[in-house]
Structures are given as C-alpha cells and as structure tokens.
Amino acid sequence: MKFATLKNGSRDGALVLVSRDLQHCLPVPAIAVTLQAALDNWDALAPQLEHAYAALNAGQATGAQPFDETRCHSPLPRAYQWADGSAYINHVELVRKARNAEVPASFYTDPLMYQGGSDSFIGPRDPVFALSEEWGIDLEAEVAVITGDVAMGASIAEAASAIRLVMLVNDVSLRNLIPGELAKGFGFFQSKAASAFSPVAVTPDELGADWSDSKLHLPLLVELSGRPFGKPNAGEDMTFNFAQLVAHAAKTRELAAGTIVGSGTVSNKQGNLFGSSIENGGVGYCCLAEVRMYETIEHGAPKTPFLKFGDTVRIEMRDAQGTSIFGRIEQTVVNYAGADHGSRRG
Amino acid sequence: MKFATLKNGSRDGALVLVSRDLQHCLPVPAIAVTLQAALDNWDALAPQLEHAYAALNAGQATGAQPFDETRCHSPLPRAYQWADGSAYINHVELVRKARNAEVPASFYTDPLMYQGGSDSFIGPRDPVFALSEEWGIDLEAEVAVITGDVAMGASIAEAASAIRLVMLVNDVSLRNLIPGELAKGFGFFQSKAASAFSPVAVTPDELGADWSDSKLHLPLLVELSGRPFGKPNAGEDMTFNFAQLVAHAAKTRELAAGTIVGSGTVSNKQGNLFGSSIENGGVGYCCLAEVRMYETIEHGAPKTPFLKFGDTVRIEMRDAQGTSIFGRIEQTVVNYAGADHGSRRG
Q: Is residue B275 a contact partner of residue B290, using CB atoms and an 8 Å limit?
C-alpha cells in the first residue's frame, strides 16, 4: 500500500491511499482519518485498507481523485518519535578521516542513533526555514521506516516484522552549530532543524525484491538547485539494516506505533575512494558535509559552501522502470524572518 | 485549572478537569477529548474549560466524580516532544567535581538540553520497567512545563507566555549506560528509559505566588522505598528558568503545542556544601547519582546503590497548607521480562 497525508488546515492532515503509479488517491475517513490512527490500530485496519487500495489501483474506487504531491504534508505531519541512526559508516569514516581520527571499533557493531524533534515536521514541498545562513544549513538524504509497537528488548526478527512503512527523509542539519552542541555532550539539539519526509510512505511489500534484508536496494537521487548531486544505492554499504536499527532503539524501552527510525545519510564507499562526485563519474553525495570532507581530505580545506537562501533540494527514488516510488521532496531554503509560516498546514 | 488523563484503554486516555483540592474530577468530552486536543486549540477552548473548572470547584458541575489518582495516565500519555534541560547547575558541578573536572564557563549561560523519547510515557503509578538492574536504574525528580506553539527564535518573554501547564516528572535514567552513550557523541538515547509525569498538570495561575520568574518556588518531595530522600526547593539554584529553557529549545525550530520542557534534576547548593542528606539536616537529593557523587567527593567512592527491582519512588509537591498540588508519582521498579505490560493503558 501507498499512503499520503493531504494538508487540510489541521495539524494532522487527512490520510489518503495513493495508487501505485502516484496518479490517484482515495480519502479513507471511514477507515482512518489520519495515518497515526491507521498505525494505532494497524492489524485491525490493514485488511480494509488493502481492499480499498486494490480498488484504487483497479480504477474502481468511488471517491478517487487525482493525486497532487504539492498538496501533501509529510506522511506523519507530527510524530511521537523520530530516532535517526547513522548506518552508513562510510559517512562516519569520512568525518573522522577529514580530521585525522580513527573510527572506534565499536562503531561497526553498535549503531549511532540520536533522538530528533518530531513535533512539527515540514512538508515535502515546504520551505526549509532558518534564521541565518551562518548556521551552515545542510541536507541529509536518508531512508526511514515507520514502526508498529515494539517491545523492550525486541529481537532483530521482531523488529523487522514491526516495520510498517518506508519513506524518504531530508534530515535538515545545521552544520556550524553541531560542534558546539556535541561538545556539550547532550546530543544535536539546536543543530537539527525540522525534517521533511517524502510525500508518500509505502509498505515494504510494495518494494518487491528491492526491499530485502531490511534494506532498500535502490539509488537515492539528490539534486541541488537543479544539478545532479547524488545517486548512491541505499542498499549498499549500510552497516546496520533497519531491523537492527529498530532493535537498537528498543533496547531499553518500548517503541510505540508511529515511531520513525532513520538510516542516517546514505553514503557509498566506491572502491578505494571514500566518495566521488557525479561529474567525475561517481555516485555523489547525500549531504554537503560529505563533499566538504572529501575536499578537506584532497585539498586541505572545504570549497563547497552550505545551502544559501534560495537554494533548492530535490530527493527522490525511482524503480527499475523509472517510476517515482515515494514522490519527490523538493524544498527551497528560506529566511524564516518575515516569511509566511502559516502555509504549512495548507 | 488542573487537568488529568484517565486511563480508558486508548492510547491517549480521557481528559478530565480536576478540582483544586484533587478530590473531584469532571470529564469534558464536549470541549476536548484529550489533553493534546485541548492544547491544539487552547485559546479557543480555555474559556469553556475555565467555566467548567469554576463549576467543578463550586461543587456545581454535572457529571463530577471522585478523582482517583491511581486511575491516571501521565497527563500526556504520549507527546510530540520531550526536551529536558539541566537547569540546576549544582548537579552538573557535582558531576564534574566527582571526577576532578571544571565546569565550562559557557554552562552558566548556555543551557544543556537533550531530546528525550516521548512516544510512550509511563503513568504516575505504573511500574518502572527495566530488563536489568545492571543498567543502573535511577530516578530524576524534576519540574516540567507543557507549551503552546512557539515560533522559531522566540524571545524569553514570548517563551514565558507560551507556558500552558506545569507538572512533575520522574525522568528515569540508566546510569551505567550513560558513559557509553555519551562517548558516542549522539546523546543519551539508550540510557534514558520512559519517563513518568505527575497525575495532574496545572496552569501557572494555580500556583499563585509560588510561580514567579518562570520558576516554581516550592520544595520537591522525594521518598525512596518509604524514606525521605529529598526536599530541595525547585525555585532555588535554578540557573535557567523555564522561559529561558523554552526559548533555548525554540532557537532553531518551531515548537508545536504539547511540547514538554523539563528542568533537569532539581538540586540545591546549600551554602558551601554541594548537597547533604535529609538525615544530616540537609535538603537531600532528587536522584541517586547525586548522593553517589557526594559520597565519591567525601569518601573516594560511591556507597549508595542504584534502584533494585522492588524499590519504590515517590515524588510530590505540597503547597504552604500541605495540600498536594500535582498528586503523587509513586512507582515500583519491576523486571520487564515476564511482567504484564498491558496494564498501562488501563
């Protein structure tokens, strides 16, 4: 199944089923008004949702309407948990190499994960707001899953079976604030802005063979201000799969339905190289910090600037036939001061 | 106004108004079904809630019933954000002194704050579940506020005016997991278990003169397994008040209604001492880590163990007349393995 949340002026928006080809959608208020409501009672509601989804794809659903990605909020406009891992160790290796430090051995067996803010995500076509370019605004293109309820101490197999939906993320990061925040020892807090998710979230079975071993084996496509920037395969060089990440999150506490767990910035190792640009024949990057680290390693200092007001970010994933699976995240960086902030509820 | 959430088998429970003396309560489904619903539309609903609250306190509310704290969930059984500060620098000074380290000067001007899990709080009378005593299970008795919507970059005055409710917290911490988690640089993640909040959350005006300068000027009463353990005044030695903490949380992103911001463990400095037990005439402690640090400073090593299965924690606050303001957090530490986990929804 594919799901989206249409803006309707409320904080949680309206749940719709989206056809496999992203051409049509179907409100399902008689089954679940919001995506959280569907997740809260998934086992009971999934059969009804499956039935409606089959009718939608067959062109036989009463009430179906054209699907317009630009009307979407993030699938969960607000969530009870957003826990983001850092599963692509190549990204961590690059960070360390750029400052001549070793990666601790434990990083290959014990995932990095931080608790992010989940009270007010931005929509996939909403502006990325910031009050200053000096914050070092960066994208982080990632894959994320939404879980059902998970018991404390769940096994990796139990965690795998709790994965309900898959989607894409732009985990907006404020790079110049990170060193100060991490030095305080309490995590990223002020250095992570509100994240945006893809218009559409899909059940793992929609992904067919591209979803295996709790990983999504397709290129993640990133454009910056209209130019190709990254296309690494999200299934490669992922040291911890989503089942491992969910189990890690649940080690000391239960996870409630609607918990979002992220992969961290997708990053491919590319043989002996730590990364290389699309222009140079590589798969490029999913964040600016990574190209800057690569520049630091090669040239002694970063050259590529962070995002400026007016820059745009596009994140998408296509199947083997070239069809968009999750719709497109497309955002412009905008100065929060003086901007219209109310549009996000739509 | 005073609010509580009664368990009713749902994930969010049922909102009730609670009389000032905590003797009666009144369901208000025609106004707001849940506390989150009231917070989502506070300005419009507050007058109706005030009207019902006045009738309840006058003994004239139709549908009023006896209030039973033991039926309560945390006021927000799940929330969209839980951001916990560390505003009592004495606590931080003790941590540092126990390991012969200095407190960075910036800690007196830049609050410490971490993002906590908010997807599944435990109720005020629910067990504190853990899978192992070896995790170093500790309480942290704190004060917390619930905010309305807060703009990015809000001033301290704007932050102060966004404080909707005040309550108490037991921020359960897993001390033996903290060093490993903090060493990874991504925050506390696995070292913070699910938190519990007091049965009742109150509007600041209920606190009269005890709420001033965005601080709560009353002793926070803590008992461990039936013995007095702490009674520090939450209004003393609070380096950052709640308005400053909320503004800190909002520096780089909006906060959505229902955001919970905590004070960190309450800790009084007591003259030249860093803390002293109630038995020795002091105001005692709000967490076991603090007495252990004090023991380390005095004797070279900690003596007091962390919580064991079967230990109980009580946290409460009384007004000048001795009346409980928020009801009582009272929890027993229980092994999650083999326990009945379903009771929490009631």
A: yes
User: Which A residues in the span 264-323 are in contact with B, Cβ-Cβ below 8 Å?
Assistant: none
Residue type, B96: R
Task: State how far the Cα of A40 lies from the Cα of A32, in Å rounded to an integer.
Answer: 10
Contact between chains at A115 and B116 (C-beta distance less than 8 A): yes
**Tens-digit pLDDT profile for residues A132-187:** 999 999 999 999 999 999 999 999 999 999 999 999 999 999 999 999 999 898 99
Chain A: give the shortest CA distance to residue B80, in Å.
4
Residue of B nearest to A136 (CA): B252
Q: For chain B, say whether A184 makes contact (Cβ under 8 Å).
A: yes
Helix (H, G, I), strand (E, B) or coil at B122: strand
Distance (Å) from the alpha carbon of A120 to chain B's nearest alpha carbon: 6
Q: Report yes or no: B151 at the A interface, CB cutoff 8 Å.
A: yes
Which of B117, B135, B151 shows the shortest C-beta gap to A115? B117
Tokens for A42? 């998934």
Residues of chain B with Cβ-Cβ distance to A130 below 8 Å are 252
B252 touches chain A (CB under 8 A): yes
pLDDT tens for chain B, residues 1 to 346: 999 999 999 999 999 999 999 999 999 999 999 999 999 999 999 999 999 999 999 999 999 999 999 999 999 999 999 999 999 999 888 888 877 888 999 999 999 999 999 999 999 999 999 999 999 999 999 999 999 999 999 999 999 999 999 999 999 999 999 999 998 989 999 999 999 999 999 999 999 999 999 999 999 999 999 999 999 999 999 999 999 999 999 999 999 999 999 999 999 998 767 778 898 889 999 999 999 998 988 889 999 999 999 999 999 999 999 999 999 999 999 999 988 776 556 5
ipTM value: 0.96
Cβ neighbours of B310 (radius 10 Å): 10
Could you tell me the CA-to-CA distances from B292 to A93, A222, B287, B295, B304 in Å, in that order?
37, 51, 9, 5, 6
CA nearest B188 in A: which residue?
A186
Helix (H, G, I), strand (E, B) or coil at B6: strand
Return all residues near A52 (Cβ < 8 A) that are at least 6 apart: A17, A26, A28, A31, A61
Dist. CA B334–CA B315, nearest whole Å:
18
B249/A336 Cβ within 8 A: no
Q: Which two tokens stand for residue A247?
A: 């189990």
Quote the minimal CA–CA distance from A278 to chain B in Å.
30
- Residue B240, φ and ψ in degrees, nearest 5: -120, 125
Nearest CA in chain A to B36: A11
Model pTM?
0.97
Q: Which residues in chain B touch residue A80, judged by CB atoms under 8 angstroms apart?
A: 78-80, 118-120
CB distance from A245 to chain B under 8 Å? Answer: no
Q: How far is CA A314 from CA A126, A132, A196, A327, B328, in A?
A: 12, 21, 11, 10, 50
Residue B188 forms contact with A (CB below 8 Å): yes
Among residues A135, A195, A189, A188, which one has the least CA distance to residue B248? A189
If we measure between CA atoms, which residue out of A127, A136, A5 comes closest to residue A75? A5
* DSSP H/E element including A35: helix A35-40
Nearest Cα residue to A275 out of A113, A89, A104, A135:
A89
Q: What residues of chain A, 312 to 331, have a C-beta less than 8 Å from chain B?
A: none
